[in-house]
Design a protein that fits this description.
- There is one protein chain.
- This protein is mainly alpha-helical.
């Protein structure tokens, strides 16, 4: 059975979020970026990914919050 570390899961979440974002699936990008934030709340890259997806979904207040983090 394969077990991912938190860092591995965060990396995977960011890669999948970027894929979804590029494909226009902003809901998918948002969900995976949210997962990444829950794993690494101190990582600026995960907040940027979540901010971008939130902005595309019209969640502007949330986007601004994550851009600032």
């Amino acid at each position: 059975m394969f077990h991912q570390t938190s860092d591995q899961r965060e990396t995977e979440d960011l890669k999948v979020a970027a894929f979804y974002q590029a494909d226009g699936d902003y809901r998918g990008a948002y969900e995976r970026a949210s997962d990444a934030v829950s794993l690494a709340a101190d990582d600026a890259d995960v907040h940027l990914a979540l901010a971008e997806a939130a902005r595309r979904l019209g969640k502007l207040d949330e986007a601004e919050t994550h851009y600032k983090k």
